[in-house]
């Protein structure tokens, strides 16, 4: 099994037929078929079920399982190529949940980009659980997550907390950070922004029998699209609220029974090589000043 065979397998899936996959790889269709045949022979199982004329291609059950392996292989090849091109510079792979990347860490990344000597950055977005797995597998060097999970080979450090507030789209924005009566919020305009376990527990008690609204989202991109109607509202971390208020047409409010603060944890392996340790040390030197401004 080698890279060109994996590449052939993935190209067939991405293009849906042998003809287009062969064109994308700049090889003949017979060469592509041979590479797939060799791959199936080496793994000892059929991966793709072909219809007559090769027009219908469907993954077998083994193929579905092998697809995960093939994608990991492709990522490792890309990481290796990236490493080969960065031998003269420090490199740092940083993973974080969506909101940290978008609303809190841009000044950090800007500072790292301007650092001398140059640092090559690889930024990845994952959910909190996946970030732990990525750090444990060595696929990212440092992660910023919403969960404090006990894992043998990972150190966890609480670095940041922020309030959650009610954010509402308004024709004439009011003074922010005042208390709001929950009864003044239109239930039909609520968008639930998914949070951590503590937030969900609080929310269930706060809403009682009313339960969750009909619309729930787990990315800021979706939230911003759906909040763009006067009267729509959501309970969000302060970093999102401040950003949208600065754009106009939004106000944020406090609740008498406030939701729990959101906590950011920094995670990294307990066993760092010298290069990664140096990169994280530089990150830490900028991180404190960025968080102090929040």
TrEMBL record:
It comes from the Bacteria. The keyword Transcription regulation applies. Keywords: DNA-binding, Transcription, Transcription regulation. Pfam families: HTH_1, LysR_substrate. CDD domains: PBP2_LTTR_substrate. Residues 1-58 form the HTH lysR-type domain. InterPro entries: LysR_HTH_N, LysR_subst-bd, WH-like_DNA-bd_sf, WH_DNA-bd_sf. GO terms for molecular function: DNA binding; DNA-binding transcription factor activity. The keyword Oxidoreductase does not apply. One of its GO terms (cellular component) is protein-DNA complex. Belongs to the LysR transcriptional regulatory family. This is HTH lysR-type domain-containing protein. It comes from Anaerosporomusa subterranea.
């Amino acid at each position: 099994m080698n890279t060109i065979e994996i590449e052939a397998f993935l190209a067939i899936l991405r293009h849906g037929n042998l003809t287009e996959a062969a064109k994308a790889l700049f090889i003949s269709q017979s060469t592509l078929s041979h590479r797939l045949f060799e791959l199936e022979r080496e793994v000892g199982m059929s991966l793709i079920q072909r219809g007559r004329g090769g027009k219908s291609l469907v993954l077998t059950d083994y193929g579905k399982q092998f697809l995960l392996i093939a994608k990991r292989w492709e990522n490792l090849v890309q990481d290796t190529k990236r490493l080969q091109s960065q031998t003269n510079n420090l490199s740092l792979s940083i993973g974080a949940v969506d909101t940290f990347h978008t609303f809190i860490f841009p000044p950090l990344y800007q500072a790292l980009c301007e650092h001398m000597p140059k640092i090559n950055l690889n930024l990845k977005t994952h959910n909190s659980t996946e970030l732990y797995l990525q750090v444990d597998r060595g696929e990212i060097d440092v992660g910023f997550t919403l969960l404090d999970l006990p894992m043998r080979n990972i150190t966890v450090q609480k670095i940041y907390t922020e309030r959650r507030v009610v954010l509402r789209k308004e024709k004439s924005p009011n003074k922010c950070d005042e208390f709001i009566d929950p009864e003044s919020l239109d239930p039909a305009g609520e968008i639930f922004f998914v949070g951590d376990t503590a937030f969900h527990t609080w929310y269930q008690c706060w809403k009682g029998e009313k339960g969750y609204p009909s619309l729930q989202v787990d990315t800021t991109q979706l939230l911003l699209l759906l909040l763009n109607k006067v009267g729509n509202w959501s309970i969000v971390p302060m970093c999102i609220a401040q950003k949208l208020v600065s754009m106009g047409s939004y106000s944020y409010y406090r609740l008498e029974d406030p939701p729990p603060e959101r906590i950011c944890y920094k995670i990294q392996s307990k066993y760092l090589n010298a290069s990664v340790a140096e990169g994280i040390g530089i990150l830490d030197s900028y991180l404190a000043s960025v968080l102090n401004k929040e």
